[in-house]
Amino acid sequence: MTEAAAAQKLVIPQLIVGLGNPEPKYDQTRHNIGFAAVDALARSWRISLSENRKFQGAIGEGRSPNADKIRLLKPLTYMNRSGQAIRAVTDWYKLQPESVLIIYDDMDLSLGKIRLRLSGSAGGHNGMKSAIAHLSTQNFPRLRLGIGKPKGANITDDPAAISHVLGRFSLAETAIVSEVLKLVVEAVELSLKQGVEQAMNRYNNREIKNVGTQMKAETPGMN
Length: 223
Hints:
Number of domains: 1
Structural class: alpha/beta
CATH architecture: 3-Layer(aba) Sandwich
Radius of gyration: 16 Å
Strand order of the largest sheet: 2-3-4-1-5-7-6
Helix content: 25-40%
Number of strands: 9
Strand content: 15-25%
Largest sheet: 7 strands, mixed
CATH topology: Rossmann fold
Order of helices and strands: HEHEEEHEEHEHHHEE
CATH superfamily: Peptidyl-tRNA hydrolase
CATH class: Alpha Beta
């Protein structure tokens, strides 16, 4: 099914997954911004996450702002086996792939940008490769969070790229990430209320920019 065909029906997430790596040494790294996004959603919705060995991840269940049941998951399998945890949860709760929204880092987007899609390839991201393999489809929504990439790093296994994704955000970048996570909460909440496509239309052109000491969200062509 193409993205256009998927858009014909309302896509409402029931499971939201943030990709990252376990262990304290990976905390606050660029590659773990998916974990940070789920943590932000959990705080906003007052959902507690706890480790569940059956699901190979930290999972929490609660109510979204529109009172529908929602589940949050952080796979603790390490990035390249993320799909194992996702599949364990979808099998247990009998969820369809299109009801799974996966949030992860993307070097091809600059820091401050986010992109929602209804389907697509892994784009070289190992966590998404695993998710696609275990869900046996590319047709599930995803939210990519830009982390930028170092100059000259064009492939994901480039040493400079690896160092970049496993590195931590600078102080200035951390301030931008904080604002991005607020956008993530807004975009996900709209996805739950009106569907992923509506959230795509509203948030895919938004960008957090650093203007002096002020952070603001901008939409190109709008003041």
